[in-house]
Amino acid sequence: MLPILLCAILSPVIHAHTHREQQPLQPDLNRLVDVVDVSTEPWTSKYGAQIDLGYTGPLSFSHLPYTRCLDDGAALFDIGILGMPFDTATSYRPGARFGPFAIRSGSRRQSARGYTLTWGTSPYDLGAAFLDCGDIPLSATDNAKAIDQMEAAYSTLLARPVRGGVTSAYKSRTAAFAKDGKEHPRLITLGGDHTIVLPILRSLNKVYGPVSVIHFDAHLDTWAPPAGAQGQERITHGSFFSIAADEHLMTNTSIHAGIRCKMTGPQDIAHDDTVGFQVISTDDIDDYGIARVIEKIRQRIGDSPVYLSLDIDVVDPGLAPATGTPEAGGWTTREVKRILRGLAGLNFVGADIVEVAPAYDNADITGIAAADIVHDFMAMLQLDEPPLPHVTLGPDTGDSPRILFSVRCKLRYANGRTDVGKSIRRPLSSLHENLAECNDSGMIAYRKSQRCCVELKISETGERGRLV
């Protein structure tokens, strides 16, 4: 009885004490001090601003501004980075829930210094306002709920007004084919296993109707759900496209790129065709070349609104090992990036990169590759056409400038004749003398040397050159 009696006696005291401690603190206005002028302090006066280095600071993609966009209705953007940490519909190795973190970590060396020779520009110079919108807090135990959460979040951000650019270079990209005739933000999504594309396509369908899909992957992902599967069990990272086709979320003009998986037989390709896809295999790049691969993708998509989904396992596992279902014999990172460059100018409504599972990585090489591909997305989504290829010609000899020939220049002679569709061979000095016309975005830097010749293939879209 004694312990009970003591509790009865002490409980009011304990309760009162706890209640007093929970009272909110009131600021003592008399003790407030003036804001410190940091410019007079030792650090700032000597070293300036406290900037973030490539390996320091909060983790956002490429050190972009970061906010939880779902909570912040005032945060406007044109292109957002959104993480979907989901991996509970995988068939082999899980771990892609850590993909958004790994991709952001792989982007740490990237910054506002975004110009590359590959694109001939920086994505930050093309006008769009970028924002890292953080990750969706997804259920890790209920797939049906998680998929609904992804759809709700994506639809929320898709319905937000756009920022409308940060420079005059910004262009409207989606209003022409949106159902409401309005410009909508575009999202680059960091997966997550490939199942995330199903809720994304459901969200896009509300705004654009059925869209085409460019699907980079080692696997078809159009397999019918397993026989006897019911409800949520039907939806996996290998069946989501089949489900999307059943829901009429895609056009019949979608295309795979990089396929090399094992199949049951030709019937898998026959079923894939009913889902609305054509297939470019990994081997096609060797048989027909990159230019032909790009051409076939662009022909297939045409002018339709298109969504691009890239599974990191399209890259050979020797170069990107951190993925759940690796397949030997894939494309190189460089080949994938080159194809992406050739797709600029299509009517993109969004893009993703999925299946990065960093537990299987080595020295962060997969995360770094994925981050660089996202950087390509950022430029690709904003250009009217692929950047025309440039070449560096001739040996680099000391202080002489390297020969950089812009492909935007067409060779026009003084008499007005333009060489189109033929190969020409000229000494560089002669070539430069004959170059009488070049558009505003073209440039030529050259080394005068009769020993160095250039062979150019002139076409209606520009020149390609190589040292001969």
From TrEMBL:
Signal peptide region: 1-16
GO biological process, one term: putrescine biosynthetic process from arginine, via agmatine
Presence of the UniProt keyword Cell inner membrane in the record: no
Keyword Hydrolase: yes
Keywords (A to Z) from UniProt: Hydrolase, Metal-binding, Signal
Superkingdom of origin: Eukaryota
Stored InterPro entries: Ureohydrolase, Ureohydrolase_dom_sf, Ureohydrolase_Mn_BS
Gene Ontology terms for molecular function: agmatinase activity; metal ion binding
Family: Belongs to the arginase family. Agmatinase subfamily.
Protein name as it appears in the record: Arginase/deacetylase
Annotated organism of origin: Mycena belliarum
